[in-house]
Amino acid sequence: MADKKVKVTLIKSTIGAVPKNRKTIEALGLRKLNKSVELPDNAATQGALRKVAPYVKVEEL
């Protein structure tokens, strides 16, 4: 069985964001605008992505 992954791209600046959301975005590995990371599609990742949904774009791989 292949491991499911999601591609996450930072599409909005974290300037002015709630500090907790800023830390969550950094913990996901996103540092700069329009940069993407591939993350495993598990419950922990999905929960973090729900918290920062306005700042990221998520694509299934």
What keywords describe this structure?
Ribosomal Protein L30, Chain: A, 3-stranded antiparallel sheet, 61 residues, 3 strands, alpha+beta
Please, could you describe this protein's structure?
- The chain is α+β, with helices and mostly antiparallel strands and 61 residues long.
- The chain has a single domain (5-60), classed as Ribosomal protein L30/L7 (Ribosomal Protein L30, Chain: A), CATH 3.30.1390.
- The chain has 2 helices and 3 strands, in the order E-H-E-H-E.
- A 3-stranded antiparallel sheet has the order 2-1-3, with no helix packed on it.
- The longest helix has 9 residues, at 19-27.
- The two termini are 14 Å apart.
- The mean pLDDT is 94.
Helix-strand blueprint:
Layout: E1 5-10, H1 19-27, E2 36-40, H2 43-51, E3 56-60
Antiparallel strand pairs: 1-2, 1-3
Name the overall outline: globular
Q: What percentage of residues falls in helices of 4 or more residues?
A: 25-40%
Number of strands: 3
Straight-line N-to-C gap: 14 Å
| Largest sheet: number of strands, sense, barrel closure | 3 strands, antiparallel
